[in-house]
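Arylsulfatase: structure tokens wanted.
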Amino acid sequence: MTKKPNILFIMTDQLRGDSLGYAGHKDVKTPYLDTLASKGVNFSKAYSACPNCIAARAALLTGLAPEHNKRTGYQDNVRWDYERTMAGELRKAGYYTICVGKMHVYPVRSYQGFDNVILHDGYMHASRYEDVPYYENQFYCDDYFHWLKKELGADADSTDTGLDCNSWVARPWCYDEKYHPTNWVTDNCLDFLRRRDPDQPFFLMASYLKPHPPLDPPQYYLDRYIGKDLTKPYIGNWETKEHIEKDGRIFDSKTGPIDDELIHEMRAAYYALITHLDHQIGRLIMALIEHKLYDDTLIVLASDHGEELGDHYMFRKSRPYEGSCHIPMLFSNLEALGIEGLAGKKIDAVVELRDLLPTFLDAAGQRDDEHYDGVSLLDVMKDSSAEPREYLHGEHAYGPFSNQWIVTKKDKFIWLTETGEEQYFNLEDDPHELDNRIKDASCQARIDQMRSWLIKELEGRSEGFTDGKVLIKGRPYGPLTK
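Answer:
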């Protein structure tokens, strides 16, 4: 590699690891991403260790585990004061760094090391409350909303569909497709490619909001799914509908619908958003080709977390189940790094968002094995027998649903910290977590081993989750540092 490669990082929001054509999904059509996968490496066991929008992005941009970046749950308006960030380190390596789309940091307009940010964080309640300072209000600081109102009038808003940013209710986008935020991100990425400095390598983070709700795909894409017989949600033998009646809401929904028609509409709209996203990514790839940049550009796809999508009667994320924490991670066009012969390869090593920063630095010729919890995945791609970790520890502060978990490429152990309930799933035989085998006598030795790993991870934590011998339930998470 005689010169530094360009890096196109396609970051999505709430995209399940299984909801892609190349991942084997029976319903979802993603022809452009499938093409990228055929020319690259698919990490099939990629996870988000703290699966929510803010915490996942902290891991992504710092290369640190949740207990070290101090984001062990979701909390708005906590300052991002990190010594090293993905964009900042790549700037030091000689890159022009730009993010188009979602950042979800605080302060809202913090650049976190980027040379430029063209911002759209999506519909955010925390940025719309009456007591939010004007300079932090979404209509003041979000570039997409400025543009939308300029194009369609002062009253135009992404909420004109009547959908909430965490709701499973679905309907078509109410304006022309060209005004959809997915198109807007692509449009601005194309504009950057046109205006870039041709003598400087770039790191372009195309940070799409979708398929995060509102579930508002353009009509064309919804029509592709709404009339089809779609795969039903996966319901484990360990779950009941009891908590839906207690906690189910449309605003800020934690649980999914139980009406079959609404379930179908939810899933159809989610899949439609993915196909729409795929086609817009296709526009981006074609632009690389037309600007004669494709051969010199590493292309990477990931998501901050997944989406339960009705599995186990759940909706959204933050929980330790596959729909929530299993994410896509795809590296394409590795030839830009001088790495040959990996087209169409699938690697089942357990990897996490924290691994992307050290991987990008390695690709840029600035390897750093000292400052990050993550590791460079180039080593794993060059030697698929290499294992970056024996297991991954995940967690999420979530009130009565607070959880700690250990996952390997074969199985998962879950501990619910409030109740002390434990779960064990053999992911090889049961990838959708239908059968909780925590009481299966044949699994007890393995469960004991995974529990001991969790105890080791939690030793010394201020919450007092363990005394070093057993797990202690009912211990509250401490507050995040402002």
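The chain has a mean pLDDT of 93. Residues 6-389 form a domain with the Alkaline Phosphatase, subunit A fold (CATH 3.40.720.10).

Cheers.
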